[in-house]
Amino acid sequence: MATVTGLAEDELESLVVLTGTATFKKEKPRNLVLRRELASYIRKFEVPRHSDAEVYAAVQAIEDARHERSAETDRAHRLSLTKAAANPLCPVCGSQMTVRVAKKGVNAGQQFLGCTNFPRCRGTRQLA
Ligand SMILES: [Zn+2]
């Protein structure tokens, strides 16, 4: 998305909005909100970082880069979701996760997924 919009990676907030009545079997990822939560999620960002013109240009760039909807793009999207489920991203920063072994604490010796940005990010997930 940074390539498409020309914005820096840290200027973008990746977010998936679910419509309908979704419930989660596990902890809800940080970058996923229900539609009814969207307004309060947006209000968390109090300081505008871009002018209206910059936002419009970024939205236009995304629209211009959008793939035509087709059976082929639907299939590619489903495949990418399957791959994403097999390789979950960090719930804190969205980076890749890697298998680590807890060195101390009550889980010492047990494997877990840790963020590849450790020690800058301390995001973890349980191994499925
Ligand atoms: Zn992380």
UniProtKB/TrEMBL annotation:
This is Zn-finger domain protein associated with topoisomerase type I. One of its GO terms (molecular function) is DNA topoisomerase activity. It comes from the Bacteria. GO terms for cellular component: chromosome. Keywords: Isomerase. InterPro entries: Topo_IA_Znf. One of its GO terms (biological process) is DNA topological change. Residues 90-127 form the DNA topoisomerase type IA zn finger domain.
